[in-house]
Amino acid sequence: MKSRHKGNKSFLPSKPCAVCGRDMTWRRAWRNNWAEVKYCSEACRRKGCADD
User: Fold this and answer.
1) Which residues share a beta bridge with 23?
2) What does the alpha-carbon distance between residue 36 and residue 12 come to, in Å, rounded to a whole number?
3) Contact by Cβ (8 Å): 19, 48
């Protein structure tokens, strides 16, 4: 029997944070700009903005 549970995140794309290397999983809020997402959090964005 196939599960209809929609919360399985193992099928979502992911990529590492540019600063800390933490694996970031795709989020609905990022659906329009996933290619441009570099940082896992606001704190990492602030640390990494000097490199841009």
Assistant:
1) 16
2) 17
3) yes
